[in-house]
Design brief:
The protein is α+β, with helices and mostly antiparallel strands. The protein folds into 3 domains: about 20-170 and about 250-320, Bira Bifunctional Protein, Domain 2 (BirA Bifunctional Protein, domain 2), CATH 3.30.930.10; about 170-230, no CATH class; about 330-420, Rossmann fold (3-Layer(aba) Sandwich), CATH 3.40.50. Helix content is about 40%, strand content about 20%. The protein is built from 15 helices and 16 strands. The chain has an 8-stranded mixed beta sheet. A 5-stranded mixed beta sheet has the order 13-12-14-15-16, with helices on both faces. A 3-stranded antiparallel beta sheet has the order 2-4-3. A hairpin with a 7-residue loop joins β15 (about 395-400) and β16 (about 410). The longest helix is centred in the middle third of the chain and has 18 residues, at about 140-155. The chain starts with 19 loop residues before the first helix and ends with a helix. The mean pLDDT is about 90. The protein binds one RNA strand through α3, β6, β10, β11 and α11.
RNA sequence: GUGAGCGUAGCUCAGUUUGGUAGAGUCCCGGAUUGUGAUUCCGGUAGUCGUGGGUUCGAGUCCCAUCGUUCACCCCA
């Protein structure tokens, strides 16, 4: 008889009311900072053609090879749930002519999808906030992006994040370096672990990022990317560092910091923490000067970053920072006949008219004084208002403080709005 | 995709070693001088023990499979 229970798709989680206040807190704080730097919001489709991602992220990356949710739709088109936000943003910019002799500072928020094995801080549907800047090639905008991300953490009260930066140089310089690295590592092929042997073919730069301690001696002696940078990239990188130093942003240069997506060049950066286990990257980004052209637009320099909201929420939950709630200010207790109830609802509506920011819950469903007070307490309300037949008859209302030791007061109903206005 | 741990009441878990009538706390509902919550006391609701096979007179417990979940590898935000 009982139907089989339908549950959510693996790695795709419901965020319920116990968590939404902290999500709203994070989103509001970050939007406020983006706004203050003059970035403008764009809202982009979750579904794009598969080709967009294979052309931008890179055919041989793990994301494109085995992590995308792709399917053929009714028309026979090959579509993909976006695994990241940059490609769609570039596509939209080209499509609407936003890059034609203009600069743009854009941001977006939304769900991304990757078919990975779920673990802490990594889910198949996850939420990112990202920003992208187009048409500016100098290190000043790289610095602005990094300064803005630093301000996010200050705004949220997070102080356990560290900044790592690196430069990948030009595409040409990186290609030369990549060959040098492959040559070097090939000499030690037998000593490489199986992951690194595989990456030697797929993404050699990632071997530098290996977590296997046995790889460290080999990596330590490997040729350094920074030594192979072209002079323009070196200049760009040193100007960026100078700017960060001047403003007083602390950073570590991590020569092993390479990004997983093919389109990055020059500046790359990550904000990392050791509080989240294996998924320690909270925010990451970099410059991608060739991507717009690669997708079919006019060559346009660009830089961007994205942060995982789930990871920010996890960090806030771990911290001692006060977790915001959305519990009501007032719970209105109504006991008595129909006249009491009717009058109570009218009173509640007049309070909402007079105090638009008031969070007021009116008791629904019957209940004794006792049970209604229990509900009032459980709601987290600071105050309980009591309206019953006595109060109705005398035009009064009782007000009780539920969270502090203060005596209950009896007010004229006509005084109530003024009394509440003067509370905060 | 690989490995390890865990699936018993809405939630947190005991019970599995040694097979024998399904347990606790919490939550929720009601009551303890019928107009006052959060403390205390009493009572009540609540589970085909993840699912499907197998062994057995008998399985939450043993065996196999499968799904889910957690963490790590990998990948990355």
């Amino acid at each position: 008889m009982a139907k089989k229970l339908i549950s959510s798709v693996r790695g795709m989680n419901d965020i319920l009311f116990d968590k939404t206040p902290i999500w709203q807190y994070v989103e509001t704080a970050i939007k406020q900072v983006l706004d203050s730097y003059g970035y403008q919001e764009v809202r982009l489709p979750i579904l794009e053609t598969t080709e967009l991602f294979s052309r931008s992220i890179g055919e041989v990356t793990d994301i494109v090879e085995k992590e995308m949710f792709s399917f053929i739709d009714r028309n026979g088109d090959n579509l993909t749930l976006r695994p990241e936000g940059t490609a769609g943003c570039v596509r939209a910019g080209i499509q609407h002519g936003l890059f034609h002799n203009q600069t743009q500072k854009l941001w977006y928020i939304g769900q991304m999808f990757r078919h990975e094995r779920p673990q802490q801080g990594r889910y198949r549907q996850f939420n990112q906030i990202g920003a992208e800047v187009y048409g500016l090639k100098g290190p000043d905008i790289d610095a602005e992006i990094i300064l803005m991300t630093a301000r996010f953490w200050r705004q949220l009260g997070l102080n356990n994040l560290t900044l790592q930066i690196n430069s990948l140089g030009s595409v040409e310089a990186r290609t030369v370096y990549k060959q040098k690295l492959v040559d070097y590592l090939s000499d030690y092929y037998e000593q490489l672990d199986s992951d690194s042997q595989r990456r030697l073919r797929t993404n050699p730069l990632r071997i530098l990022d290996s977590k296997n301690p046995q790889m460290l001696p080999i990596i330590a002696k490997a040729p350094q990317l920074l030594e192979y940078l072209d002079t323009e990239s070196q200049e760009h990188f040193s100007q960026l560092r100078e700017l960060l130093d001047k403003v007083g942003i602390k950073y570590q240069i991590n020569p092993c910091l390479v990004r997983g997506l093919d389109y990055y060049n020059r500046t790359v950066f990550e904000w990392v923490t050791d509080c989240l286990g294996a998924q320690g990257t909270v925010c990451a980004g970099g410059r991608y000067d060739s991507l717009v052209e690669q997708i079919g637009g006019k060559a346009t320099p660009a830089i961007g970053f994205a942060m995982g909201i789930e990871r920010l929420v996890l960090l806030l939950l771990q911290s001692d920072l006060p977790i915001p709630t959305n519990s009501p200010d007032i719970y209105l207790i109504l006991v008595g006949n129909e006249q009491v109830i009717n009058h109570g609802w009218c009173l509640a509506e007049s309070l909402r008219d007079a105090l638009p920011n008031l969070r007021l819950v009116v008791n629904c469903g019957d209940g004794s004084f006792k049970s209604q007070f229990k509900r009032a307490d459980k709601s987290g309300a600071k105050l309980a208002l009591v309206l019953a037949e006595d109060e109705l008859a005398n035009q009064k209302i009782a007000l009780k403080y539920l969270r502090e030791k203060r005596p209950q007061v009896i007010l004229e109903q006509s005084e109530l709005i003024n009394y509440l206005k003067n509370l905060d």
